[in-house]
Amino acid sequence: MALGQNHEIHERRKGRNYVVLGLLIAFAVLIFAVTMVKMGNGHMMEGFDHTFRASALPVTEATE
Amino acid sequence: MTDTSWTSDVAQTPEPGVRDYYELLKPRVMSLVILTAAVGLFVAPVPVHPIIAFATILCIAVGAGASGALNMWWDADIDAEMGRTKNRPIPAGKVTGQDALALGLSLSVLSVAMLAVFGNLFSAGLLAFTIFFYAVIYSMWLKRATPQNIVIGGAAGAFPPMIGWAVATGGVSIESVLMFALIFMWTPPHFWALAIFRNEDYERVGVPMLPVVKGDRVTRNNILVYTVLLAPVALALAFTQIGGPIYFAVAVLFNARFLWGAWAIWRRDEATSTADKHKTELRVFLQSIGYLFAHFLALALEGALRMAGWQMDAWPIWF
Fold it and tell me: Which keywords, in A-to-Z order, does the entry hold (chain A) (predicted)?
């Protein structure tokens, strides 16, 4: 007995594949959202190339 | 390969649906893990961004689900013999053991790796240890080796609030240890209240549950002892930085009720219990679920009040 195009097994696989697609999209969105939060939260992400960084200058004593 | 052999292969191989995979993750256990981990994270003194909190709790829940799948893979032989578990996806023939193992291992690695990225290395290490503890120490080793299996295995279920706390603070403190101890001490009387009248299944498959190995009387004694030991742990949390008067009131009420129930179980014997179809034991088992939810919800409420600036300055903090 050959399996037809609309066999129940195909329907199940189709449903499962849609759920996997949804999970992958949700995972990508989650990674994006967490990245945005971490960058926005002031984690140390100073550019090291072609950027003037005040924090890299030697500490100077304040003079009166 | 002929068309006929291919179709017969298909007919013999289970074609699991999404729901079957979901069942492998033990969703009811996951709901408790989500609650306790979320409370552990929420009550910690270091605020966590809601998106980070959501992502890390998701990792902890997926890690718990992964260990559930590994447990089902390992215990498939005995699950098939027990009334309570014979309809699980593997014994019911919906998912193969190989699939469950693959799902469990891949979700374990994914959840730990993502928790390290979203949270911190310490919390990820704790999650990895929890999965190892439940899948290997409890499922593969202790469950079939000692009548104290539930006592030691209960530690796996006690880690989630500690992981939530570690996500926020990056470490361990007296508050997270007490939240761990609360679940750890609660698990044996909660589980034995059920196991005491459902022990025929365990007996048949050779799992040395306390009622099977030591008998009804010893189990009743143990339920009372653990409930007595649980009460001071639950009350101690009231006098930490995450406790307060509302939590204290809830703890007094629910511990008194749990102690009363354990006392009632202790006063009965097997004959009395069988005569009324284990009415008291079942009642205490159901109450014990409410017990844990009430304690963690009270902690969450205390946390919310602290955030709103409503806290009692005179409340003593001893720990």
Answer: Membrane, Transmembrane, Transmembrane helix
| Residue B139 DSSP symbol | I
Determine which of A8, A16, A17, A41 to mutate to test the interface with B (most B C-beta atoms within 10 Å). A16
Indicate which CATH number applies to the domain containing B111: 1.10.357.140
**Percent of residues in chain B assigned helix, strand, coil, to nearest 5:** 75, 0, 25
With tokens 């609660």, the residue in question is B186
Query: What is the residue extent of each domain of chain A?
Result: 8-56
Which among B18, B52, B118 is the nearest to A16, CB-wise? Answer: B18
Of B317, B155, B160, the residue nearest B236 (C-alpha): B317
Structure tokens at B69: 């799948």
What confidence tens digit (pLDDT) does each residue in B186-221 have? 999 999 998 888 778 888 888 898 988 999 999 999
Last residue of a domain, one of B169, B190, B207: B169
B→A contacts (Cβ < 8 Å), by residue, are 3-4, 7, 10, 15-18, 49, 51-52, 55, 58, 117-118
Residues of A in Cβ contact (< 8 Å) with B16: 12, 16
Alpha carbon distance B170, B120 (integer Å): 7
The residue of chain A nearest to residue B2, with distances taken between CA atoms, is: A2
Write the burial class of residue B270 (CB in 10 Å: 0-12 exposed, 13-18 middle, 19+ buried).
middle
CB contact set of B138 (below 8 Å; sequence gap of 6+): B71, B149, B152, B153, B156
Mean pLDDT of A33-41: 88
Residues B149 and B270 occupy one common structural domain? no
Does the beta-carbon distance from A34 to B3 stay under 8 Å?
Answer: no
* pLDDT band, very low/low/confident/very high, at A49 (cuts 50, 70, 90): low
The reported pLDDT for the residue numbered B257 is 97
Do B141 and B107 touch, CB atoms closer than 8 A? no
Q: Which residues of chain B have pLDDT under 70?
A: 1-14
Which one of B169, B194, B226 terminates a domain?
Answer: B169
For the segment B41-54, what is each residue's pLDDT rounded down to a tens digit? 999 999 999 999 99
Residues B40 and B75 in one domain: yes
d(CA B146, CA B167): 33
